[in-house]
Protein 1
Amino acid sequence: MYGKTIGGTLGAPFECYRGVFDVGFYTQSASRPVPNDDVDLQLVWLRAVELEGRNINAHVLAEYWSTYVSASLAEYGTGKNNFRMGIRPPLSGHLRNRNRNSNGAWIRTEIWACLAAGHPEIAVRYALEDSMVDHSGEGVYSAVFVAAVQAAAFAENDIFKLIDIGLSYIPADCGVAKGVKTVLGCYENGMDWKAARKTLFQTVPGSFGMMNGYYPGQVPEEDIPAGEPGYDAPSNIGIVIIGLLYGGGDFGRSICTAVNCGEDTDCTAGTLGALLGIMLGAENIPEKWKNGCSDEIVTWCLRKDEALKAPRTVAEFADRILRQTPAVLTDYCDIAAANGYTIDIPEKTEEEFVPRFWNTFPYLLSRIPRATHDVFPICDVFVAYDEDFVSLRAGRKKTLSVRFVNKLLDPQYLTVKLLGVSEDFEVEDGAERCVGLEHRHGGRFTADLRFCFTPVSLKKAKYEFTMEIKSEGRMAKYYIPLVFLNGNCTEADE
């Protein structure tokens, strides 16, 4: 995390500017790190892990976000506005969110990488839950990519292998993958970093650097387009890779190269600084960089709340993460080791050492942004919305596709009810169903059903239903909130 604050401080003066710079060291005289939302959000996630444990998910993180994060700009604000309305992740990260493909998620992945050190297959699951709160699409893919690379870096120093590991978790045809592969191609073809930057911007155009335009003294580049507003993750992830490849393993040269590419400079240099800190170790970060930036944590967008108990230094932050790592890596962490706990990193592929029944990551990723995911002791429940998401229109049928995954070795019968459906709606085949779930050994341990209902008339702006789930013979009941809006939150409105 020390590398994170150093890189963020170096890049801060050039954030939101476009141009090719010649930065070789801090340009500000302050010895403290600059306030940085990249770090702020991770302090909130740390507290969530400390209080809620390894089973935190997007819904829990959204609640912590609402409680402790004051910033309401861009995707942060859209995500908060959505879940204030009761719109849950991943829909909260997508609906009416023009910045869903931007940089707000991949810049806060270090905590997941550190908690799952050496285990990218675990880090990506947390990064996915985190990113879907206020992003979708490239915003999610970028967070998954960075989390995988950083977690793997605890056990692997070959940068090309690290990049391959990151790419293995995201769609091969997504913008982030395209940007990373473009930079790799430029490097392999002997192009310098400036030419790689230009090719990257031409391949996956972004707009982050055009918020403030070209930096004073910079000549506008006619051959570099301005991309779609909010589509910034692919190009900025590409900048991180430029710094990683062309920096040649040198900490200072790497983060300076990232800053010299412009755009979201505090984020690109901060994330790269964190990655290099993992690979090199904090003790191997050159003293001149440490001397110019203390290990103090200076917050920007956090509400001052004693319950948050935010760490005040990088050292304290790291220590508290280390305390939680055994809980996250329960199956791979020996807490009884003589000289402190050790982490087991099997020499196997993801598919080999993650039980396939429990590996929901690929399915979750494929269902974003339409499907919510709820985890209960007896089953996992996925609720997928149709093409209109949460929007209702009179006379137009609405379909919810629900998948149940049995978590028990026992077969179950589930009674599933839609509660709160008023006379304004016609429900096909009734609002109550019975679902049979077989056990995992040789059985079909998933089951699917659909609820189809049609608004006859819409008299309210917002409708709130509840899905009740009960396993016969068990006392507990489980509930999933469902929110719909009166025709004012469609894709067409975006």
Protein 2
Amino acid sequence: MLRLHNTLTRQFENFVPLSGEKVTLYTCGPTVYDNLHVGNWAAYVYWDTLVRILQIDGFTVDRVMNITDVGHLVSDADEGEDKLEKGARRENKTAWEIADHYTQKFLDGMRELNLVAPTHIAKATDYISQQISLVRALKQRGCTYQTSDGIYFDTSRFPHYADFAQLDLHAQKAGARVDANSEKRQPWDFALWKFTEPGKVRDMEWETPIDLLDTIPSDNKPIMGFPGWHLECSAIAMSLLGKTIDIHTGGIDHIPVHHTNEIAQSEAATGQRFANYWLHCNHLKINGGKISKSLGNGYTLDDLAKRGFDAIDLRMFILQGHYSNEGNFSFENLQAAHNRLQHWRNVACLRHQTHDGLHSDTDNNDLKHDFSPSAAIGAVKEALNDNLETPRALAVVDQALTELDKKPPQKIYRAGLIEFLEFIDAALGLQLMTSTPDIDDECKRLLVERRRARENKDWVASDELRDELRDYGVIVKDTAHDTLWSYADKKPE
């Protein structure tokens, strides 16, 4: 049974979905004003692992991920410039163009990292009417009030506001958690709908329905505005998944503000629990420090590619850490992850060099403590079902593949190896099978010629054929049992 650490209760709990075989899952998606860096991508790899183990456990996962393409202000609260508008000014484009460009970059990155596509990818700008409807429902329940710059949620109308993040509101001064706004009834009240500043025109703005206002403008001119950042997640989640969902995921930085506000507005509107399980991943640091553009360490997938690393190298690096622990990225650590992945790929190549003579992974087993693929599958499942223990799962794979690598090819149970590799790909998404196809006929011919040359002790020809195979990207290794091949490591710079 899957066991998860639930932020809501601060306890480990067995996962029991609302519906027997269907799981509703919401993941906070990116704000598409710039390229994502390695720290951003870590969260999506962790939650991809959650989706994969749920599917392996037999659940159908109905997953929603939002795309924040409006309303996320620089402060993460209610002050400052919209990040999309700022990005538009930076690149001399419209906010719509910025959103489209970086949304596509995000989707491309998802494919490079081999992330399971969510059931629904929902842009905030496609759900404006649903967000307005949520504000309307809150106003009808007396939970909103109007200021000069927008419509705010009155947190005093939600007595459990501080519970989720265990906030000590009385100890907080105005501006300690969010920027001070003298018109707020409580410093932690948050914007549901922001008004466009007088005299300005935004790329992204919509007319504010009159029934949302406490004060109608004397000139009867429409008030233009846009949704607050927190509003979209509640509106999208409830529109697509229902009033109560099984699991909500995000980063630990979401706990004190964004997710606290999501819970308040959702539960105030419906009177029901918003999500039963909340999972939060920790931060990723760079060489022990914070990721910052000013420091030039906000490495993107393109930056990694320029150094010779691919996205699956990064995926392996991320999986080496547990989602609840603070990670530390360095290129040395990424190189270690690359080397680990390369070893796994080398072992994966063995399936093309074995025979179907064995009928189980215990046949001809002369290793007393041999680690069988079938046993390893169970051990990996057990690790992932224990709060997504990816480091332990990877250690199991290491042990299994190392033992397999010790065996002569004729003593490897080919069907068991293939089953194990397919399971690793399903559970961890590392593409071991697709990255290690069988070599072509020409390479096979060269291997046969080289074996003959070695049998004839023609070492010059043997070396020449080895070099020719290397030109094809194939590396040969002579063992006491046979000559084995693998793909050359495309070593990062």
Protein 3
Amino acid sequence: MLTGRKFAAKFRDATAREAYLTWSAGQMFIYNESVLEQRFFDSLSRLVAETERHKQPVRKECRIERPKPDQKYAHFINKAERPWLSQVPSAILGIGAFRFCQACRRAAAGLASRPKLRAIKDADRHLLLTRDYFTIEPSARSGWYELRFGSARIPGGTILFKAHREFIVPAMVSVTLTSKALFVSMSYKEAEEERFPETEKEMIDRLQQYSEEELIACGNGIDRGVVRPVQTSNDPEPYALTKDQLERIQRKERQRRHYQKRMARCEKGSRNRAKMRRKVSRTFDYRKNVINDFAHQTSHALVADAKVQFFVLEDLQVKNMTRRPHPKYDDSGKALPNGARAKAGLNRAILSSGWRKTEEYLKYKAVKTGKLVIKVDPAYTSQRCPKCGRVERKNRPTQSVFRCVSCGFESTNADYVAAGNILMAGVKMIREGRLEPKKVKATLRGKPARATTKKLGPGRADVMPVEPERCPGTPGCQTRHEAGSPSIEGSGH
């Protein structure tokens, strides 16, 4: 499995920063020159094709075939015009051509667009280093490491980064300088056979050998809601956003509405409108970053529990749950209230809870740790009593309180009760050896669903007319259901 690490970093001194800027500029220069060369041959090929299309003779010596992308870069280097290129190792310059060929292969495979020119700015740099041009050693400070780049002929500098996780020194390291910070990224392959020996079916077969009490002890049911985004069956305390995060999200929401009003008053195509659009985008980015951070931290805390071997989630259809309500009209065609405003607030709360992100992060982190994630049918998990098993809507008098109308069981945390029911449903699935939930009919207490009739407008029939059947293959034949018409057997057809 391909995994990666990304650590925040900083330059040791100004010399390291200057060397980094020079090396990254060299790589970007070779990349951009390769893009310009490809554009030249593309335009020349189109010119030749246009000439041939108009039946104009083209001499054989003028026919030029577009060369395939390669990693040749020496013809781009002119040290007389650009003496600073002599301060960059040739292998580092060659990586610029290598990245161009990679971009061409991705474009040919349909994974990305065609290579484009990249602006060389001090606030947006990217440097790719091979193993021959960098070393990583522990620093004197605890948790910090030194990335020294350079060669015997051309010195570089030292970049300090703090590693919050274990890592392996890879064959290539990427150093990115943005307008906000400096980052060191690395990727390498892990041994999947050693770390992930079991498949889902094998884990199910192993867990089937456990008793029900053992499965309850090593499982964790997860209930996702709006007030409590993540509630587990192992801990009554839910996982939720902090008060500070919620206040910041609300503040960003107010800023977004303010910027949108200002953008509406700006002239289309003006610089002020573009500026307001960027500000609106940043407010959305903040909410997305907060949700991603919450999903990462929550999923990491869940899989870190050593005694838990499987997780049980509800099979929620978030896309269907966040749909807008259909409009309602009266007999005269006037629009009626359909609760769209209240539903919009609920949809916004659901999307801000990070249900989908938490599920995605939990799945891949569970695979890394050799744990199982299964889904169960969410029907009546919040209305079922864990003591007597009675399903009743009145068991939830409020959002937070659960009180069984049959046995009197009561709890002030209804989501905690729902998480326990989800866990029991998962235990039942494991005991049966199933990986997919059974789709049960949406009925309450085993009663069949009540038949409903479609309300039609005034003057419309209750039953849609059915087109009468006609004899096949005979145009203009009478219908078989008309009075006095002969049957098919006696019609002679």
